[in-house]
Design a protein that fits this description.
Belongs to the carbohydrate kinase PfkB family. Ribokinase subfamily. Belongs to the carbohydrate kinase pfkB family. Keywords: ATP-binding, Carbohydrate metabolism, Cytoplasm, Kinase, Magnesium, Metal-binding, Nucleotide-binding, Potassium, Transferase. Its main location: cytoplasm. This is Ribokinase. Its EC number is 2.7.1.15. This protein has nine helices and 13 strands. It is of the alpha/beta class. The protein has a single domain, classed as Ribokinase (UDP-N-acetylmuramoyl-L-alanine:D-glutamate ligase, 3-Layer(aba) Sandwich), CATH 3.40.1190. The strands form two sheets. The chain has a nine-stranded mixed β-sheet, with helices on both faces. A four-stranded mixed β-sheet has the order 3-2-6-7. Helix 7 packs antiparallel against helix 8. The longest helix has 15 residues. The radius of gyration is 18 Å and the shape is globular. 50% of the residues are buried. Bound molecules: adenosine-5'-diphosphate. Adenosine-5'-diphosphate (ADP) binds next to helix 7 and helix 8.
């Protein structure tokens, strides 16, 4: 089974001509509300592919918490380890300009309440793959990585949004998953040599390259993984689709390179449809 540890947010997306500057009021288009957050997205992507998956996270006792629970349940994700805490559900306030560029303000709310003590034996037991991302407190992520590694699970860390973690944490990671920007952040912008990611500690790394697919980096060297060519409509949540599909494929026993091929195919479908969670395909739609 797959255990995802991470955020759950309501995405509030507003189209605008331009973003408001300080002191300015701008009238935008209609708000589109959808379930999001890197953890919930990853869990929904894995669940829709048929994996047995649970989300360990936190939402608030409000309508957005219900929206997230419904979306997760609809994808077959177990809510056994999703706590309801006395903070508002996390919200991402997203403005999109006509050129397609997003500006995102995240109010983590309930996600901030996820603490090391939430990483229980009950949640870890039975998880062969544990996936983590960084919209929750870094101390919780570090603790969870070390507990998951000690339990014998394969630890997949999607280091997004990019942040610095202790060497001890990165050394306990089996697969470090980042996009090009996050890789550049970790390596220092001058380095183009992605194999340098292994020097940070993980056993292997996967760097996603948008339409160019991804590269799998192991001590034996890099392997390119192509993405199917598609007409991209909305790339929101593509990286999370990749993470969820990679985890589901690893849990089903595929090698890292085989899993990355499947993840690229799933993520490519997701960019042809609007939204994050609503865009994720079932296995039957991809393979
Ligand atoms: P992020 O969403 O984290 O920025 P990427 O942009 O690298 O990550 O996209 C993640 C994955 O989504 C890619 O590895 C690829 O498989 C798929 N993808 C993203 N954009 C496209 C695209 N324009 N065409 C085909 N596949 C895409």
């Amino acid at each position: 089974a797959v255990l995802v540890i991470g955020s759950a947010n309501a995405d509030l997306v507003v189209p605008v001509d331009h973003r408001p500057a300080g002191g300015e009021t701008v009238l935008g288009g209609d708000t589109v509300l959808s379930p999001g957050g890197k953890g919930a997205n990853t869990a929904v992507a894995a669940g829709r592919l048929g994996a047995s998956v649970a989300l360990l996270g936190a939402v608030g006792p409000d309508a957005y918490g219900t929206l997230l629970r419904d979306s997760l349940t609809g994808a077959g994700v177990s809510l056994d380890h999703l706590r309801t805490v006395d903070r508002p559900t996390g919200i991402a306030y997203i403005t999109v300009t006509p050129d397609g560029e997003n500006s995102i303000l995240v109010s983590p709310g309930a996600n901030s309440a996820l603490s090391p003590s939430d990483i229980t034996d009950a949640a870890l037991s039975g998880a062969s793959v544990v996936v983590l991302s960084l919209e929750v407190p870094l101390a919780t992520v570090s603790h969870a990585v070390s507990r998951a590694a000690a339990s014998g699970a394969t630890v997949l860390l999607n280091l997004s949004p990019a942040a610095l973690l202790p060497t001890e944490t990165l050394s306990a990671v089996d697969v470090l998953l980042v996009n090009e920007h996050e890789a550049a952040y970790l390596l220092g912008s001058t380095s183009a040599d992605l194999t340098g990611l292994l020097a940070l500690g993980p056993r292997a790394a996967v760097v996603t390259l948008g339409a160019r697919g991804a590269v799998v980096i192991t001590p034996e060297g890099p392997t390119s993984v192509a993405s199917p060519t598609v007409r991209a409509l909305d790339t929101t949540g593509a990286g999370d689709a990749f993470a969820g599909a990679l985890a589901a494929s690893l849990a089903s026993g595929l090698s890292l390179t085989e899993a990355a091929h499947r993840a690229a195919a799933v993520a490519a479908v997701s960019v042809t449809r609007a939204g994050a969670q609503p865009s994720y395909p079932t296995a039957a739609e991809v393979f």
